[in-house]
Amino acid sequence: MTKQQLTFLDLFSGVGGFRLGLEKAGHRCIGFCEIDAKARESYKAIHNTENEVEMHDITTISDEFVRGIGRVDIIAGGFPCQAFSVAGKRKGFRDTRGTLFFEIARFAHILQPKYLFLENVKGLLNHDSGATFETILRTLDELGYNVEWQVLNSKNYVPQNRERVFIIGRLRGASTNQIFPITGEESQINFKSAKINSKGRKQQVVGNVNPSARGMNGNVFSSDAISPTITCNNGEGSKIMVPTQSKTTQVEKRIIVEGLLGKKFRSSSAVVSVNGLSPTLTTMGGGGQEPKILVREATKEGYSEAGPGDSINFSFPNSKKRRGRVGKKYAHTLLTGDQQAVVTEDFQIRRLTPMECWRLQAFPDEAFLAAKFGSREIAKTIIENKLDHYHCEYEQKMSDSSLYKQAGNSVTVAVIYDIAKRF
């Protein structure tokens, strides 16, 4: 709990990931803005928004209405990464017109909160050769804010590899705290707190079952590794591998043997490409004979070795310049359209459920259930009575496709809390 309770405005709110982290740190929401109707529906099911300011399309909100919001200490929100039409050498507030960042700047200009708390993809730092980020910094400086920023990875809080840049603006002349840098053990949370599955283990990709091998909807996750970045995927949920007790197993799709290093080693020396079916991997008893596959890539050796628990990147399968396809024990960062896999000992598969995706963003189960059933009361009843939410008497109000999308569009609550408790 913080020493003082600050008020905040939740812009581009989605289902309220910023809000949950800020409220956990002791702060109070006075209003929110979200253009997507389904996300607003989930937001209002999860949070008590009575007597709060509700806004939809931020570009239609008048300056007069913004002034009427009154005093607020924090403006928070994640905004799209958009290029600015820079006129001359000004590179300031006026050059951001027509972008959603301009709306954040407009609200800040009118309301003058102590803090701006913003989130974006890591690529914002290099977008348009750095011109985009430079314009943001100049704009915030012009509005009277000292700015600090840091890239944080969700994998230090939950089992998901998700790098995002967080930007803090501190109003000059106001009493504010320096927030960054967040370093070392102070930013880490035990993976088991994320409750990804019944054993609380981390997630990792094992393959892609789409015919095209593209899209998160075809990705398959291990039940015992780090998950990739959760993204908006049009309702096609991720899959998760379920181990079986058979001694011989097979990857479903997307790997093909190109040759052997030696006849005697068979699957332990199979060289594979990034297209087609896997060879059968047989469980072995150690001594260097454990299942290994060699993934073709543009290195001096011509391949990288992958074993159980390693991830494989299948993007641009025909590229002759691609390297770094094998990730040791961590999945590569996954975005829509990426192709990720991992080598495991067993290859039965299932989807990651919507609830597991929300857990990867550190949302409490009660929040997910409130969104799913459209009611905080129903969510509490299900949890208190330990009901199976898949087979209960209550009607599901939010589709799985929307729930997947909402998880992918959100921020990681645990990261927000770690920052917000420092205000």
TrEMBL record:
Gene Ontology MF: a single term: DNA (cytosine-5-)-methyltransferase activity
InterPro entries: C5-MTase (IPR050750), C5_DNA_meth_AS (IPR018117), C5_MeTfrase (IPR001525), SAM-dependent_MTases_sf (IPR029063)
EC number: 2.1.1.37
Keyword flag Secreted: no
Gene Ontology BP annotations: DNA restriction-modification system; methylation
Entry coiled-coil feature ranges: none
Transferase is among the record's keywords: yes
Catalysis performed (reactions): a 2'-deoxycytidine in DNA + S-adenosyl-L-methionine = a 5-methyl-2'-deoxycytidine in DNA + S-adenosyl-L-homocysteine + H(+)
Residues of the active site: C81
Keywords, comma-separated and alphabetical: Methyltransferase, Restriction system, S-adenosyl-L-methionine, Transferase
Family (UniProt): Belongs to the class I-like SAM-binding methyltransferase superfamily. C5-methyltransferase family.
PANTHER family in alphabetical order: TRNA (CYTOSINE(38)-C(5))-METHYLTRANSFERASE
The protein's name in its UniProt record: Cytosine-specific methyltransferase
Designated gene of the protein: dcm
